[in-house]
Fold:
Amino acid sequence: MKLHHLFSPFTVIAAVKTELDMARAERMGVRNVFLVRSSLSELKVYSKQAEKSGMRLFVYFDMIRGLSQDKEAVQFLLNEVAVCGIVSNKAHVVKEARRLGVFGILTMFLLDSYSLELSGKVINDLQPDAINIAPGNLPKNVRELSEQYDVPIIASGLITLPEEVGKLYEAGACAVSTSQSELWSIEWKMLEQEHHAP
Structure:
């Protein structure tokens, strides 16, 4: 299954950092969760909770305390917990995740025009399942990447308002990740229809 099928239509991904965030996401019926930071022992708890409630758990690999950043650590992690995908800014981690049968999402920090230009080579070489761009509140960057590459774009970071989410979808994002829980359950399909109404 392609990753964008999990994120359509107009998915908001809950970026969670604590057990309280996870419990809130579960109560709200959130389907997709990005676990932004954790330790390996905490991850086991989150993984069981996500599995029990039918949530798809994606893990920010670079933010797991106590785990090295090599490809052997990816295999170790996947042997310990069930996750839907791994999010990382390290190409070798994303590549190994895909090799081991989970989604590999590449995070790209778009700090200036050079980093945007450099991203093209990495995307072409790696062919990740999706690109997670940060900061994600810039529709111009989303549009540029979505027009150039046939890879789902996820916008993450500094997204706090409903109108920002609408603009990001309009620019070509397949999903938006935010820690703002009030945005997790908004009907974005309805928002899109209102936007195109005569």
Summary: The chain has a mean pLDDT of 88. DSSP finds nine helices and ten strands in the chain. The longest strand covers residues 103-109.
